[in-house]
C-alpha cells in the first residue's frame, strides 16, 4: 500500500506559513480536540450549546476578537485568525459562528466605531468571554436588503428610543449586549443595547435543521430608551455594518474549509476500512476520483483564503475580494460535504460521523453573511462596472 498524506498535505501548504501562525493553529486544534469534538455531536442533536462556558474557554486562549489590537485582544494576524476559524469549523460551523459573531461583528463594531468609553466598558470583558455580544442587522423582512430596514431610533431629549425587530441573530438569547443598527433622521446608525434594558426581548429560534450547535434568536425592541452615549459615534451610514460583515465573511472563507477538510478526512478513513466486493472501497476508481476532486477543490480554496489573508495583513484586502472567497469556498465546501456523504453510503446520514452535520450546517453558511447570489452580483458588478441590484 502506498504512503498516504492528509488532504492539506498534498501540496504542502504548511510551508506557506510562519512558525507563529502554525503555533496559533496548534493551540486551537488542541482546544478543538479536547473540548469540542467529544461533545459537539450531542450539542447538535439536542440543539443546545453551553455558550457562556465555551466563551470562557475561547477567551482563555485569545480566540475572541483575536485579530483586534488592545483592550485584551490578542492582536493576531488575519492569517492566524483564519487558521483558527478553519480549525473551529472542522468541529462545527456553529462553534466558529460563536467566535465570528463575538469578534468580527460585535467586538469589531465597537473597536472600529465606538467611543473610548464604549471600548473600555465592553471589549476587555468580551475578549475574556465574560460578556457575550451579538449583532442586530437582519430583520424578518429584510435580509439581503439591509438598506430597507424598519427598525427606527428617534430622539427624545438627549435619549434615543429604539423600536423594531431583528431576526436570525446568533448569540442573541444569551448576549449581554447587542450592536443594533437602526434608521434615524440622519440615516443608519449603530447603537449598543444592553440586553437587560426594559423593552428588550430575546426569543430563541427553535426547530432549526441546520446550525443546531449555535444559539439563534429574535430581538424585539419595544420603545427601548437608551442614553445618548449608546450611539456608536463613528458609525455613519450603511457602510459601517457592511464593513463588519466583511470582517465576518473573511472568517467564513477559512472556516468553510475546515468543514470540508473534516468531511474529506472522514471519507478517506471510512473508504480505506470499508470493505465491499472483497476490497476497501478506497481502492475503486470511482471512489478515488471523488476523493481526488474534493482534495483539489480544498487545496484551491485554501490558497485563495491564504492569498486574501496576506492581503488583509498588508491592508490591501477589498470587500469584493472577500466576496470571491466566500462565494467560492462555501460553495465548494458544500459540494465536498455532499460528495463525501455518498462515499459513506447509508452511514453518511448517521450522527456517528460528522459529514451530514457539516453538510446541513454549510447550507446555512451558504446563505448567511450574504447569499451566494448576492456575492455573485458583487463580483459581477466588479467585472462589468454595472450594478444589478435594484435601485
Protein architecture, described:
With 391 residues, the protein is of the alpha+beta class. It folds into 3 domains: 7-128, Butyryl-Coa Dehydrogenase, subunit A, domain 1; 133-237, Beta Barrel (Butyryl-CoA Dehydrogenase, subunit A, domain 2); 240-384, Up-down Bundle (Butyryl-CoA Dehydrogenase, subunit A, domain 3), CATH 1.20.140.10. The chain has 10 helices and 10 strands. The protein has helices at residues 19-46, 51-60, 78-91, 93-113, 116-128, 239-273, 285-314, 319-343, 355-365, 372-384, and strands spanning 133-136, 152-156, 159-170, 177-184, 187-194, 200-204, 216-226, 231-236, 275-276, 279-280. The chain has a 4-stranded mixed sheet. It is globular and about 80 Å long. The mean pLDDT is 96. GO terms for molecular function: fatty-acyl-CoA binding; flavin adenine dinucleotide binding; glutaryl-CoA dehydrogenase activity. Residues 18-130 form the Acyl-CoA dehydrogenase/oxidase N-terminal domain. Residues 134-224 form the Acyl-CoA oxidase/dehydrogenase middle domain.
Give a brief description.
The protein contains ten helices and ten strands.
List keywords for this structure.
single chain; 391 residues; alpha+beta; Butyryl-Coa Dehydrogenase, subunit A, domain 1; Butyryl-CoA Dehydrogenase, subunit A, domain 2; Butyryl-CoA Dehydrogenase, subunit A, domain 3; 4-stranded mixed sheet; 4-stranded antiparallel sheet; fatty-acyl-CoA binding
Amino acid at each position: 500500500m502506498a504512503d498516504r498524506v492528509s488532504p492539506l498535505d498534498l501540496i504542502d501548504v504548511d510551508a506557506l506559513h510562519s512558525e507563529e501562525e502554525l503555533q496559533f493553529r496548534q493551540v486551537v486544534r488542541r482546544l478543538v480536540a479536547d473540548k469540542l469534538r467529544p461533545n459537539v455531536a450531542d450539542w447538535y442533536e439536542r440543539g443546545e450549546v453551553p455558550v457562556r462556558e465555551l466563551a470562557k474557554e475561547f477567551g482563555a486562549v485569545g480566540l475572541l476578537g483575536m485579530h483586534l489590537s488592545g483592550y485584551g485582544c490578542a492582536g493576531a494576524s488575519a492569517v492566524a485568525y483564519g487558521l483558527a476559524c478553519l480549525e473551529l469549523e472542522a468541529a462545527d460551523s456553529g462553534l466558529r459562528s460563536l467566535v465570528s459573531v463575538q469578534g468580527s461583528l460585535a467586538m469589531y463594531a465597537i473597536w472600529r466605531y465606538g467611543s473610548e468609553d464604549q471600548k473600555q466598558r465592553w471589549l476587555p470583558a468580551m475578549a475574556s468571554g465574560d460578556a457575550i455580544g451579538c449583532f442586530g442587522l437582519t430583520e424578518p423582512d429584510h435580509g439581503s436588503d439591509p438598506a430597507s430596514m424598519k427598525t427606527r431610533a428617534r430622539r427624545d431629549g438627549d435619549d434615543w428610543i429604539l423600536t423594531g425587530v431583528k431576526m436570525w441573530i446568533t448569540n442573541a438569547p444569551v448576549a449581554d449586549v447587542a450592536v443594533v443598527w437602526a434608521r434615524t433622521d440622519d440615516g443608519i446608525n449603530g447603537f449598543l443595547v444592553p440586553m437587560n434594558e426594559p423593552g428588550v426581548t430575546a426569543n430563541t429560534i427553535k426547530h432549526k435543521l441546520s446550525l443546531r450547535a449555535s444559539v439563534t434568536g429574535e430581538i424585539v425592541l419595544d420603545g427601548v430608551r437608551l442614553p445618548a452615549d449608546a450611539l456608536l459615534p463613528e458609525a455613519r451610514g450603511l457602510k459601517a455594518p457592511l464593513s463588519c460583515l466583511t470582517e465576518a465573511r473573511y472568517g467564513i472563507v477559512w472556516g468553510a474549509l475546515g468543514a470540508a477538510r473534516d468531511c474529506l478526512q472522514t471519507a478517506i478513513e471510512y473508504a480505506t476500512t470499508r470493505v465491499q466486493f472483497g476490497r476497501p472501497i478506497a481502492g475503486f476508481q470511482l471512489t478515488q476520483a471523488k476523493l481526488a476532486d474534493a482534495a483539489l477543490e480544498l487545496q484551491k480554496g485554501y490558497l485563495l483564503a491564504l492569498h486574501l489573508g496576506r492581503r488583509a495583513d498588508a491592508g490591501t484586502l477589498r470587500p469584493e475580494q472577500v466576496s470571491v472567497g466566500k462565494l467560492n469556498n462555501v460553495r465548494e465546501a458544500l459540494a465536498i460535504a455532499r460528495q463525501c456523504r455518498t462515499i459513506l453510503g447509508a452511514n453518511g446520514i448517521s450522527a456517528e460521523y460528522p459529514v451530514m452535520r457539516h453538510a446541513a450546517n454549510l447550507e446555512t453558511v451558504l446563505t448567511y453573511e450574504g447569499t451566494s447570489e448576492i456575492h455573485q452580483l458583487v463580483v459581477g458588478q466588479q467585472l462589468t462596472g454595472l450594478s444589478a441590484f435594484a435601485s
